[in-house]
Design a protein that fits this description.
The complex is a heterodimer of chains A (195) and B (207). Chain A has 195 residues and is an alpha+beta fold. In chain A, 34% of the residues lie in helices and 32% in strands. The model of chain A has no long low-confidence stretch (mean pLDDT 94). An eight-stranded mixed beta sheet of chain B has the order 1-2-3-4-5-6-8-7, sandwiched between helices. The chains are: A alpha+beta (195), B alpha+beta (207). The complex binds coenzyme A.
């Protein structure tokens, strides 16, 4: 477990897998998948889990996915590294808080600080990156706040349901630019809250 | 076969498959695929790569050759994403005599013609290692726009190097018939390479 101020990152067990049907069919999927909407049955999601387990048994290196839960133990989403290239010491991050009620409340940033520290301090990555739709204001704000640099603006890189084409912004963070989680918490003045 | 101005596009088979055993271990290959680990490719790897591309639902491996039929290298139409209508346009030069030549540019233009005019793509992606002026020049001449740079993204011979990211939109593509004549494409008129030895016959012959 990685302990944050508002959330903890925990193994994604059955509790999280059971939430996925709700999360993936919700607006959260739209933001996390860069503009897609899907209709997923329980059976499909079940099959994903089985396939994912089979694949990850053979795959090296594995991505890493943590569950995000609030301090009172409510599962709200997940965060992790989907694509890791050890020979480049390069990792791509991804996150989805499946419960819209929790968006914009600082939970995602708290989880992000944990995963950045984890990627540098435990996995010995050297650079982290992530792409998002230009219209995903929460991610854009979050990245700037935490200290990622916008490096590329790919024009019309996503087709967004109900919007048309949108640009992708790609962010990067180098290890030497990362002062450590404690320093960022101090700079942003983040504090734990009593629920 | 798709006929260009100074090159033709053909299925990646026969001599191409033989040449690829060499090409896939050369500099130009790794420059075209900056995320790959630098490692030796065996005959088995080469065969598997060709097979995988052939089976792929979102890619095509295409050979391109001079008008005299001499193979130059390969074009990769890859990572096609039909919902978003985008794909990656990648080329590698096998016969290094053609490095930086107009033949390579024509190959890239023909790949773009295929992407926009046959596959109906909206956007094409490309990436170039920051020091690779020759590749950057080919993409630029074909109309690609530099959209940003991923800092120190790739490990390359004891250093971390930047990766330029490029894009070209269908609205910016004038059409092959329009753009090709404006670029003054000149054939290099090189002598064809000697044909590769036929496969698997008399393996002990030259021992
Ligand atoms: C992306 C995500 C993990 C971020 O987590 P979060 O808890 O919502 O983010 P935070 O609250 O920590 O930070 C978001 C920032 O955006 C701000 N923000 C929220 N809504 C905003 C809006 N409409 N316009 C401008 N800023 C906004 C917040 O105020 C906050 O900034 P602040 O701390 O300066 O006030 C979460 O929103 C999520 O899962 N969204 C759906 C899926 C998704 O987009 N995944 C990422 C794909 S790349």
């Amino acid at each position: 477990m990685l302990e944050g101020l508002l959330v903890d990152l925990v193994p994604r067990g059955d509790t999280f897998e059971q939430m996925e049907h709700k999360w993936e069919n919700s607006e959260a999927h739209f933001w996390a998948s860069a503009g897609d909407r899907v209709f997923l049955s329980h059976a499909t999601i079940e099959r994903w889990h089985t396939e994912e387990r089979e694949r990850s048994a053979h795959r090296h290196p594995k991505g890493v996915r943590w569950g995000i839960q609030t301090k009172d133990g409510t599962p709200i989403g997940d965060i992790g590294i989907g694509w890791v290239l050890p020979h480049l010491r390069l990792a791509m991050l991804g996150a989805m808080i499946g419960e819209p009620d929790y968006w914009g409340g600082g939970y995602g940033t708290d989880a992000l600080l944990l995963i950045v520290d984890y990627a540098f301090d435990w996995l010995d990555m050297r650079r982290l990156w992530l792409g998002t739709m230009s219209i995903n204001t929460r991610v854009v704000r979050q990245m700037e706040k935490v200290g990622f640099k916008p490096e590329v603006r790919s024009r019309d890189a996503w087709l967004v349901s109900g919007h048309g084409f949108a640009d992708e912004i790609v962010y990067g963070l180098l290890r030497e630019e990362w002062p450590g989680r404690d320093a960022v918490i101090a700079r942003l003045g983040l504090v734990a809250r009593s629920e | 076969m798709l006929e260009g101005t100074i090159v033709d596009l053909v299925p990646f088979e026969d001599d191409y498959a033989t040449y690829l055993k060499q090409w896939m271990n050369e500099e130009s290959w790794f420059r075209a695929r900056p995320f790959d680990r630098r490692e030796p490719h065996t005959e088995h790897d080469v065969k598997k790569f060709i097979e995988d591309m052939e089976k792929s639902d979102h890619g095509q491996l295409i050979g391109f050759q001079a008008k005299n039929g001499d193979p130059i290298g390969g074009l990769l139409y890859d990572h096609e994403w039909t919902r978003v209508r985008k794909a990656a346009a990648i080329f590698f030069v096998g016969d290094m005599r053609y490095e930086g030549s107009d033949e390579v540019l024509d190959g890239l233009l023909m790949l773009l013609r295929y992407s926009f005019e046959t596959r109906g793509m909206h956007r094409m992606d490309a990436s170039v290692l920051a020091f690779d002026e020759t590749r950057l020049d080919a993409y630029r001449r074909a109309g690609f726009v530099h959209e940003g740079t991923l800092r120190q993204h790739v490990r390359w011979d004891a250093a971390y190097v930047d990766l330029h990211m490029l894009g070209l939109l269908e609205s910016e593509w004038p059409g092959y018939a329009q753009i090709a004549p404006t670029l003054g494409l000149q054939a290099s008129d090189l002598e064809p390479k000697p044909k590769p030895e036929p496969e698997k016959k008399d393996e002990k012959k030259d021992k």
